C-alpha cells in the first residue's frame, strides 16, 4: 500500500502529538518523598532536628502515645488504682485475680517504656556522632536523654525487678538479650544518672518561665538517683543526693498559706520550685492530660467518667488536725460494731423518702439509726477538723464541688444532677470518694476533658523530703533532722507537727518503727492520685497485705465493697515478662517466676 | 438459528422432523424460484422479541459488501440484485440471522438475543477478542443485566452475576453503599483490591452510572491480567461505557423505590422489663439492685394509663416511656434514580450524553444522600486514519451530616426509658442512675452542614491507523476528587429534658454559642495517567492470525487534606470559621498519599484457523513505593487454547451429540501486587506532640522500621478451562485455578521490646488459593415464550497460608492431676490475630477459639470419684448438681478459667465452662483454644439468574448466595449477656437467658460485669451461609401498535416494571444481614421495592 503525502503528513502530526505526550514523562517520576516525615538519613543532622529528636524522647514520658488520647494506660496517675489509696470501680485484671502473662497491662507498659528507651538510645548514640550542634548543647542533650533512659528503666525495674538491658539502638530482629537482675538494672540507672549529674552543661534548675522549662535538670537527676538508692537501701547515698536537690534550689511551695496544698496542683503553680520534674501539659488537643476525664465526675466539665476514686482507707488515714488518729467511733458511737452495709445509713441524705430508705434497708443499711433531719450533720462531723489535705484531695460526703457552671454536692442516694438536687453524678455508679485533686473546677479552668493543661509532677520536692526523712530514719532512727523533714510537709498541709519530746501528745513519735509507719502514712496522704503509692507499697512490701485485706475492693465511704478483690497469688508483686517476649525470643528472655506461661 | 439452504446437504442425515422442515424449505425455495424476478428494493423493520425496534442493525447482502444499517425506527431499505439474495442481519448481543429475500418487498425480522455464545466479542485488557478465541479466563456481564434495577451503584448490582466473583455489600449507607468484591478468593494477606478500569483508566466502579454500562469484563486468571502486571494479582474488572449508535435517541430511565433495612439487631423496648433485667444482672453478680421498686412502680402504673398525665402535666407515655428506638429512628427511605441520555451517531461522529440524578432520603434522619452524574462520550473520525474522542464524566455527591455509619451503635447505647422528643425537648433517660442521654434522634442531629464530593474524570484519546494493520493509540486522563466536609454543632439539638421531673438538663457547656464548634475539612486527590499503545494485526498465509501490542503507561497520584476545628461561634447560625473565637487544636493536613507507577508492556496473539490459539504477555512495572533495590518487576504470562470443534474428525462426532462448540484452554502467568504504603521501604521519623514551658515544641521519633529490599508480592496462577456450547441453547464453562502468592507484604509481629515503632514491612508470607468455577446457561423459546437460566458456582476449596512464621509446634508436659500428657503450643510466636489467626498451614483468618465444655452429665465415675468428663452436657452450669461437680473438680485439683472461684460474683449457675482441650488440668485458659476449621471467607459462592419473557412481558430473578463461612457473634449489647445501664438489651438474650425461672435457656445468665461468658469461644460462632433473592423484576413493554396509536410521535417505546431488591434472605445468622460480614454496627443493607420506567423518545 502506498501512502499519499497527505497521509504521511498526518502520521507525522500524530507522532508529534504522541511524542509530546510521552515527553511529559518525568525522569524521576518514581522518586517520591513524604512531606510529613523525616527520612532517617536526615535525623540528627541539623540543629533543629537534633533538638526535635530529643523532644521526641520527652514525648515518650507519656508512654509512646500522643497525649490526651483518652487512654488511661499511659499516664502515671492511673497507677494509683493498683495502690491502696486509690480504686477503680471497674474490674481490672491485677486485682480481680485474672491477670495472666498475656494481659494487656503488662505488654502495653513494657512496650511503652522500652519505646522511651529506644528513642533515648537513638539520641545518645547519634547526637555525638552526627549532630552539628555546639558541644555545649550536645552535652546537655545527651545528659537529658541519659536521665530519661534511666527514668524508663527505673519504671521498668520498679515492677519487673529485672529486665533485659539495651543501651544502643538495636535491629528489630536482634532483641534477644536475657533478663538482667534488678541490681544490674539499678546499676545501669545509677550510671546514667551519674553521667547526667557530671555533665557540666546540664543546669541545676530552670527558673519559672524559662523557655526550656520542663527539660531535665541536675536537681532532677539527683532526686531520681536518691530514689533509686532507696530501692537499694543505700540510705547514706540517698541522703547525700537529696541534700543536693535542696542545694539546687528546690523547695516546698507555701505561697498560698493554708491553701498551699490545693493550689499546688493548679495551673498557676505548675512551675513552682517544688516541681523537680514534671510531664508537660497544655490546653491544646494532643498536648494535655486526660486526668480529669478519668477522675472527674459527670458534674465535671465535659462530663467525665470517674473510673478512679479514693479509698475509705485513705479517707480514714487523714489524721485529725491535732495529729491524732481518726476514729469513726468517736464521731459516730457504735460505728465499729456495725457491718459496712449497716453503716450506709449514716450517709443517707436528710429527708430521704420512704422508698429511698426502703431501698437502703434492702441493701442492708441499719435504718433504725437514721436521723431524718440530722443525718447529714452527723456524718459531716467526721470530715471536720481533719488534716486539711483530706478535703483538698477528696470530695467528701455532703461537700460541694463546682462543676461546669453549677455547684454540685455529694449526696446519697443519688436523685438527680438537675435542679433542685444538683447531686454529683458519676459514670456508672455513684457515691465513692471522688477526687478533687487534679480535677478542675468550673468551666474556666479547662476547655476539654482530655487536654488538662496542668503539668503532672513526676518528682516533686515533698517526695524528696519524705524520702529523705525515710532514709534518715532507716539509717539512724528517729532524729530531729528526720522529724524536721517530715514536718515541713505537715506544716505546709496544716496538720500538727511530729515531735519526740512530749509523749502525751498524739504527735509523739515513739520509735524508729513508729516513725517508719508515720512516714509511710504521710506519703499515702500527701501523694494520692500522683502515681506514687502503688510503687511505694511494693517497695515497702506492704502492698499485698493492704490491697487484699479480707473483703477489700472498691469501697463506698461506709466500707461496703462494690466488688471484692481476689489475690491470685503472692507472685503478682512482680509483673510478668509479657508472654509474647518470652515466645518471640525463644525463651532467651525467661518468664517471671510464679506466673504461668 | 436455523440456516435455510436451497438444497440442504444435511438432508440425508437429518432426523424426520428436520427432514420435514427441510422439505418445506425446498418447496419454498422452488416456489420462490418460480417467482424469481429482477433486482428490486426490499424494505423492512428489525425488532427484538419484545417488538422493540432495533436501530443500528447491520443489514448485508450475503456474499457482497453491499449493506446498510437500520435507522432509529429499526427500519431499513436495500436494493437486492435478485430473488435469490440472502440478507444477513447482525447486531451485537443478538443472534445473526439470514433471510432469503424472495420476491418480498417488505419483511419483518425478529432477532433473538444472544448470550454467552462464542461469537461474542469480549473486552480484554487493552483490546477486544472474540470469545471463541479467548485463552484466558474472562467472565462477562452485559449492561442489560444491570439496567432497570433499583441499584444506585454499579458494584452492589454485580452479586451473583459471574462465577469466581464474590460481591458483598459492607454497608447500606446512602451514597456509600458500594459493594466490596474479590475475585477467586483471597490470595494475599495484605490489601486485595481488585483493579478497576473504566474505559481503560483506573477508577472506582461506583463512579459509573449503571445505566451507562455497555459491558463488564472480569479478568480472572493471570494470563488475562498479566498485561496489568503488578496491578493485576487480585483480578481486574474492565468497564466499558456505552457509545452512541444510530439515529439520535433520547432515553429516560427512572426508578422510584422505598427502602427498609433487611435485618437489624432487635432490642428490648419495654422499660419495666429492661429495669428488671438489669436488676437481675446486678443481683446475679452479688451487686445491689440498680432500679429500686420506687423507680419501677411508676412505670408499671403508667403502663395501665399511658395517656394519663403526670402531676406535672406530662403524658405518662412520655414521662414513663417505652421507646422502641429502632421504630422511632428508622423510617422508610424514598429513593429515586433518574437517568436521561441522548445517544446516536451521524457521519463521522458518535456521541452519548447522559445525566443522572439520585436521591435517597436515608432510613434515619440527617443521613440522606443526593448525587448527580453526568457523562459525555464523544468520538469523531477525522479521516480514514485518525479518530479522536473523549470519555468524560463528572459526579457530584451530597451527604447528610449524621454520623450514620454509626447509627446502629446508637441503637445499642440507649434505653427504652428515654423518650425521643416532646414539646421542643429531647428526652433523656430519666431514671436516676445513668446520665447518658442516649437519645438516638438527638445524636443523629448533632451536626448540621454539608459534605460534598466532586469527581471529575476526563480521558482524551486518539486512534491512528499508521499502516495496514498498525495503529497507534495514545491517551491522557486527569481525574481529581474534591471532598469538602463543613459541619457545625447544631445548637437546637442540645435541649434535653427529664420528663419525669420536667426539668431541662443543664447542658450549658454546649448550648452556649461560645462552646459551639465548626469544622472545615477539605481534601483533594488527583490521578494523572498517560498511556500509549501500538497495535499490529495481520494475517499471514490466510490462516495465521497474528496480533502484537506494545504499550507504555505511567500514572501518579497525589492527595492531601486540610482540617480545621474552630470553637466559639457568634451564634448557632453563624458558622464561618473566621468568626470563631478559638482553635482548640492545631489544624491538621498533609500530603497523605503521593506515589507513581511506570510500566512497559507487550502482548503477542497467534491463532491458526481459529483452531490453535496462543497468547503471551510481558509487563515491566516500576513503583515509587519501593526503594531502588526492589523497584522494578517483570510479569510474564502464556496461554493457549484448542478449539477441538474445529478439527474435522472431532467435529463430526460432536455434531452428532449436538455439541456446537468445544474448546479447552490453559494458562500460566505471574502477576504482582503492590500493597505497601507509600514509604514503607524507608525508615521515617514522624512528629510527636510535646511541649515545654506551656508552648508546643516539635518532637520526632522513628515511627516505622525500614526494609530497603521491599519488593512486589508475586502471584503465580495456573488456569485450566473448558467452554462448550450444545443443543443450540446450552452454554457451559468450567475453570480450575491454582493461585500461589509469595513474598506477601506483611508486618510481622516483632518483639514489643523494640518499642512502638511499626514493624518493618517485609516480603514474608505465602498464600495459596485453589478453586473451581462453573457457569451453566440455557436459552430457549417456545414461540413467543422465551426463557433463559444462568447459574454459576464457585468452590474455593483451598485457601491457606502456606508460609508464615513457621509451623505451630507443641510442647508436651504433664497434667498435674491425672498425670496425662498436656500440650502447649507456640501460637503467639508463629501467628498473628486474636480470635481469628494467620498461621502457616491454616486458612486465612481461621477461627481460633476456646470450646465450650461438653460432658456426660453423670458427674462421677463408677468408683464414685469425680469424673472430668461427667460435667454438664452443654457446658453450662445449670443446676446445683452441675455446680457441685465444679466444686468436686476443684477439690480434685482441677481449675476453671478465666475465673476459678465459685460464687455468685464469680463462677456460678448460668455460666459456661470451657473444655480443657490441652489437658493441663485448667478448664478454659487461652492454651485451650483450638482451630475451628472455618473462617469468615465463604468457601462456596453461587448465583442463579432466571429470565422469562412472553410478548411484552418480562420476568427475571437473580439469586446470590455464599456458604462455608462463620461469624463470631459476641458483641456487647448486640449479642452478649453482659448488660449495663445506659445500653440496650438485645431481645434474643432478654427472652432466652439462664435465670431461676428459665433453667434451660440458650444464653448464659445476665451479668453487669462478665469475665466468663464473653470468653472467645465457639459458643458465639455461627454458620453464616446465606441465600439471597437479590432481585425480582416484572416488566411490560407496551406493544408497538399501542405506541403507534397513542404516544408514537413522541414516545417511541415505553417499558414499565416493578422490581424488588434484596427482598428475601435465608440464613441461620439472624442478628444482622449476613452479606455485611461479621456482626457489627454498620449501616444495614436495604430491601427495596421499586417502580421503574424506561422510555425512548
Question: Keyphrases for this structure?
Answer:
heterodimer; A: 597 residues; mainly alpha; 4-stranded antiparallel beta sheet; two-stranded antiparallel sheet; 22 helices; 9 strands; B: 1097 residues; mainly beta; 22-stranded antiparallel beta barrel; 5-stranded mixed beta sheet; 54 strands; globular; disordered N terminus
Structure description:
The complex is a heterodimer of chains A (597) and B (1097). With 597 residues, chain A is mainly alpha-helical. In chain A, 40% of the residues lie in helices and 5% in strands. Chain A contains 22 helices and nine strands. Chain A has helices at 5-23, 47-59, 93-96, 104-130, 135-160, 182-198, 218-231, 235-247, 260-263, 291-295, 312-317, 328-331, 340-343, 354-363, 375-380, 389-393, 461-476, 480-493, 512-526, 533-540, 543-547, 579-584; strands at residues 37-39, 86-88, 275-279, 308-310, 394-395, 400-402, 407-409, 433-435, 456-460. Chain A has a four-stranded antiparallel beta sheet. A two-stranded antiparallel ribbon of chain A has the order 3-9. In chain A, strands 6-7 form a two-stranded antiparallel sheet. In chain A, helix 17 runs antiparallel to helix 18. The longest helix of chain A is centred in the N-terminal third of the chain and has 27 residues, at 104-130. Chain A is globular and about 105 Å long. Chain A starts with a helix and ends in a 13-residue tail after the last helix. In chain B, helix 3 (271-284) runs antiparallel to helix 4 (293-304). Chain B has a 22-stranded antiparallel barrel. A five-stranded mixed beta sheet of chain B has the order 10-15-16-13-14. A four-stranded antiparallel beta sheet of chain B has the order 3-2-5-6, with no helix packed on it. With 1097 residues, chain B is mainly beta. The model of chain B is unreliable at 1-37 (pLDDT under 50). Chains A and B meet through helix 1, strand 1, helix 2, helix 4 and helix 14 of A and strand 24, strand 25, strand 27, strand 29 and strand 30 of B. Strand 1 of chain A pairs antiparallel with strand 34 of chain B, so a sheet runs across the interface.
